[in-house]
Design goal:
Growth Hormone, Chain: A, 461 residues, single chain, mainly alpha, 2 domains, 22 helices, Arc Repressor Mutant, subunit A
Length: 461
């Protein structure tokens, strides 16, 4: 659904109004989505407390003005002024917040594999539904169909909220509200999303048919994400890997755009949107899974995780607005502009890829136990009070439930790859948990961890 949300301010308006008005609606919508993220960060506790009550009314109140203005203007019932139209789509940007918060909160209560599959399958199903609504032959009926899809999403979310035990939401309130934000990773995501904003507005400048073509191609990106979800146990197969795989394709598309005519740009744009749809679905999956793994408050996690990407998208959209609509650039200046965007994206990613987390190399060495060493721990694993000793140590050092699971694996002599595949978590998640365990227990090696378990054995006996 997120791919349509990106185009939502444009698709109805391109049916009724000039291109620049539709693109302006898109920009206003995403600018005000930043304000919604800031509000989400500042009032995270209040939003979480009232989220169930706000899902349906909050979403509909914010979405309704935009669709109503499009209907009135398109049906020539009322001549809607530009300020009123832009204001309606600005409110639309606020409305996305309620629906996103509802689903991210619900996903945070699910297992990692089901989160990945649910988000990926949703990405596959939503574009065909949107295309069906937009191609019914009647723009007004198409708008009504899209509103219906949004309402269904709200109702399903509300139903799942009512079916969830209140104790689970109460437990979520105890999650940590503050966590370190990797600035380089945020910069990389922002520039990556800048390229997306640039391509989206380029497609919008070409007309509604090109936008619909891009939405259709996005299905292929979603299908790839389904395969990713099925194979999620593969070591090191995480969002960082996804971004590294897609950047060469994004770079090639940006460099080819200046040399193509409308048909070529439409094809390039469609491929780019499919690529970005894939990476966005993966990014949302990692955001939800990481929130659950590290017990991070999902409302604030959404705000901080999406703020940099929202800013990057808006900057890219504004650049394309001037380059393709307000003052269309000839070949050479456009090529120079695309080269600058490519340099920015690649440089930002290089900084992100080169950023090593504290203790990563040591952790790999620590948890790489040989087969011989693993066999020596057989008696320890099979001894009756082993689990009791591990539970006692986990309680003494204040380990979370997930950290306790990983602690048990380490105490058995398991290595990082085994833990990743057993618990269905990424390599980065595994390393981070191990670092937290070592820090809490004031140790620096797996052998020291096993020694602690042995000493706990003596105390137990």
């Amino acid at each position: 659904m997120w791919t349509y949300i990106v185009f939502a301010p444009v698709t109805p308006m391109l049916s009724f109004a000039p291109t620049q008005i539709g693109v302006n609606c898109l920009v206003f919508s995403h600018v005000f989505s930043i304000f919604s993220l800031v509000f989400c960060f500042a009032k995270a506790d209040w939003l979480f407390e009232h989220l169930k009550k706000l899902i349906v009314p909050g979403t509909l109140v914010c979405f309704a003005p935009a669709f109503m203005m499009a209907f009135l203007d398109g049906a020539n019932i009322v001549a809607v002024s530009k300020p009123v139209l832009y204001s309606a789509w600005a409110i639309f940007g606020l409305g996305e917040l309620f629906l996103s918060l509802a689903w991210i909160t619900l996903f945070s209560l699910m297992s990692a594999r089901w989160v990945a599959l649910s988000i990926a399958v949703g990405g596959v199903l939503s574009p065909p539904l949107v295309l069906l609504m937009l191609n019914v032959g009647n723009p007004t009926l198409g708008l009504a169909g899209i509103v219906f899809i949004i309402v269904i999403g709200c109702v399903i979310a509300l139903y799942l909220f009512t079916r969830t035990e209140p104790e689970q939401f109460e437990m979520m309130k105890t999650y940590q509200h503050k966590y370190p934000v990797r600035k380089r990773a945020s910069v990389s995501s922002a520039f990556y999303r800048l390229a997306y904003g640039f391509v989206v507005v380029m497609l919008c400048s070409m007309g509604l048919s090109d936008v619909l073509f891009a939405i259709a191609i996005a299905v292929f990106g979603s299908l790839v994400s389904v395969l990713w979800a099925i194979r999620r146990t593969k070591p090191k197969w995480n969002f960082s890997t996804v971004q590294r795989m897609t950047i060469p394709l994004v770079v090639a598309i940006l460099l080819l755009i200046p040399f193509f005519d409308d048909l070529g740009r439409s094809i390039c744009g469609g491929i780019a949107v499919a690529t970005f749809a894939y990476t966005k679905l993966m990014e949302m999956t990692e955001l939800v899974v990481m929130s659950a793994e590290f017990q991070i408050f999902p409302v604030r996690r959404l705000a901080t995780g999406q703020l940099s990407t929202a800013i990057g998208f808006i900057v890219g959209a504004l650049i394309a607005l001037f380059a393709f609509i307000i003052e269309p650039l000839p070949l050479e200046p456009l090529l120079l502009l695309c080269c600058l965007i490519v340099i920015a994206v690649v440089t930002a990613y290089a900084l992100f890829a080169g950023e090593k987390e504290e203790g990563v190399d040591d952790e790999y060495a620590i948890v790489s136990v040989s087969a011989a060493e693993d066999s020596d721990t057989t008696s320890l694993r099979n001894s009756a009070p082993f689990r009791e000793r591990c539970d006692a140590l986990a309680e003494r050092y204040g380990l979370t439930n997930r950290e306790a699971e990983i602690f048990n694996c380490l105490a058995k002599g398991r290595n990082a790859e085994h833990i990743q595949q057993t618990l269905f978590i990424s390599s980065n998640t595994t390393r981070t948990h191990i670092r937290h365990i070592y820090r809490k227990m004031n140790i620096s090696s797996q052998q020291q961890l096993i020694d602690l378990v042995d000493r706990q054995k003596s105390a137990h006996l």
